[in-house]
From TrEMBL:
Belongs to the azoreductase type 2 family. It holds the Pfam family FMN_red. This is NAD(P)H-dependent oxidoreductase. It comes from the Bacteria. Residues 2-147 form the NADPH-dependent FMN reductase-like domain. InterPro entries: Flavoprotein-like_sf, FMN_Rdtase-like_dom, NAD(P)H-dep_reductase. It comes from Amphibacillus indicireducens.
Length: 180
């Protein structure tokens, strides 16, 4: 079984990012399993903790180590990645030389409730993942706009064309994982 860690950049219960992630998790083929990795309980990263990390860091790093690839689904906050997601990247990247992100294939979906679709967050995240040595799906890029119109009351994506597009994205991610 290939495990896909799913990291959502919003802590909101009704988060569109999470609802979109729930939809995308179902598009992986047989033999793939999505595991949501929670990031809201991680204390703010402090380098002083490197020698004696809080329990939350230890179990988070173990969980990320145990997955084969990571899907990030995130909103944009102030033209960048939400702090909670950046914090998770930082926690996973240390102690120096022991990054749990290293070499794991990754894929990014950004979304927003406007037409902008999280372009800034998508590319700032891409920049960090490049440094973290994570091969990232290049094409198709996924920027989802007007999420409030895309997700129905039951949390399902209501537009077949978007589902097909997301399927092609998942297929590209699976190809990337298989090449590693
Ligand atoms: C936003 N939002 C937002 N949208 C956008 O397109 N560009 C931006 O820079 C921002 N900045 C921003 C900052 C903060 C602090 C908040 C709370 C919101 C709006 C954002 O796209 C919208 O709230 C999404 O619905 C958040 O995603 P979730 O929580 O639904 O996953």
């Amino acid at each position: 079984m290939t495990k896909i860690g799913v990291v959502v950049g919003s802590l909101r219960k009704e988060s569109f990012s999470r609802k979109i992630a729930n939809n995308v998790a179902k598009l992986f083929p047989e033999g793939y399993e999505a595991e949501f990795i929670e990031i809201g309980n991680l204390p703010l990263y402090n380098e002083e903790y490197d020698g004696n990390s809080p329990e939350e860091y230890v179990s988070f790093r173990e969980t990320v180590s145990g997955v084969d690839a990571v899907l990030f689904v995130t909103p944009e906050y102030n033209r960048s990645v939400p702090g909670v997601l950046k914090n998770a990247l930082d926690v996973g990247s240390r102690p120096y030389g022991e990054s749990v992100w290293n070499a794991k294939p990754a894929a990014i979906i950004s979304q927003s409730i406007s037409n902008l679709s999280g372009f800034g967050a998508n590319h700032h995240l891409r920049q960090s993942l490049t440094f973290l040595n994570m091969p990232v799906v290049q094409q198709p890029e996924v920027y989802l706009a007007n999420s409030q119109d895309l997700v129905d009351d039951s949390g399902n994506i209501n537009n077949e064309q978007t589902v097909q597009f997301l399927q092609s994205f998942v297929d590209a991610f699976v190809d990337l994982i298989n090449k590693q």
